[in-house]
């Protein structure tokens, strides 16, 4: 069986900051507020948490955890219509401005994520559990988790894929050399958006990270991307 070891061999370790102080809520930039049209919604994935943002008016935004409180169905931007959030599975309906339940089997409302606009950027205030960078959880399985077909990863670029450990950027700087990193940008918590042959780019504030090892090429980020251990087998990329 063909099994090719990929760039690097071990998981990069997330930085642990042991301050002895209680964990604090953290402000996370979601990018330019103007990028969301009035009456439209967008979902952001931040360190494994999904945040649904609805723009009520030129100056008012509302944010919620993008999960139906009844059955944890993932809520998408397309589920927001006429200022209402419609769960496609159980037909629960919520007010997209307040998150309050309007109808459906659940008695609960959407979980609110506080938002504000600062210098044109949309800022979400997340509870500590939602802002912690994903923790590597190596699998003992010899098979690993298949996260994408090799052919889907462009040479000289990368793609974002979903895995059991959250969203991952898989890159192929040169033909046959793959690497994978967390999409979590430690500068402000945005998800990196795209990759070239040499750099993974966070468009929130312009940070760039090496496609070879995830280290910072250009700030304002000061910490590199967390790297995942992957391997290729039978035309697919697996998370070890
Ligand atoms: S969040 Fe600021 S550069 Fe990524």
Automatic annotation (TrEMBL):
Residues 28-124, 145-239 form the Rieske domain. It holds the Pfam family Rieske. The keyword Membrane does not apply. GO terms for cellular component: membrane. Its cofactor is [2Fe-2S] cluster. CDD domains: Rieske. Keywords: 2Fe-2S, Disulfide bond, Iron, Iron-sulfur, Metal-binding. GO terms for molecular function: 2 iron, 2 sulfur cluster binding; metal ion binding. This is Unannotated protein.
């Amino acid at each position: 069986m063909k099994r090719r070891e990929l760039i690097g061999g071990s998981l990069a370790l997330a930085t642990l900051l042991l301050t002895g102080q209680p964990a604090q809520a953290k402000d996370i930039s979601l990018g330019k507020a103007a990028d969301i049209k009035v009456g439209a919604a967008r979902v952001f994935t931040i360190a494994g948490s999904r945040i649904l943002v609805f723009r009520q008016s030129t100056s008012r935004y509302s944010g919620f955890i993008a999960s139906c409180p009844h059955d944890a169905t993932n809520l998408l931007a397309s589920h927001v219509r006429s200022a209402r959030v419609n769960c496609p599975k159980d037909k629960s309906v919520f007010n997209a401005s307040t998150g309050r339940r309007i109808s459906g089997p659940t008695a609960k409302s959407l979980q609110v994520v506080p938002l504000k606009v600062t210098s044109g950027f949309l800022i979400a205030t997340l509870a500590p559990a939602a802002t912690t960078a994903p923790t590597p959880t190596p699998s003992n399985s010899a098979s690993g988790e298949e996260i994408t077909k090799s052919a889907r990863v462009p040479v000289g670029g990368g793609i974002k894929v979903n895995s059991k450990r959250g969203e991952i950027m898989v890159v192929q700087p040169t033909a046959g050399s793959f690497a994978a990193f967390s999409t979590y940008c430690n500068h402000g918590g945005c998800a990196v958006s795209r990759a070239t042959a040499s750099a993974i780019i966070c468009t929130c504030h312009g940070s760039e990270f090496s496609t070879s090892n995830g280290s910072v090429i250009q700030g304002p980020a000061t910490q590199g991307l967390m790297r995942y251990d992957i391997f290729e087998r039978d035309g697919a990329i697996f998370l070890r």
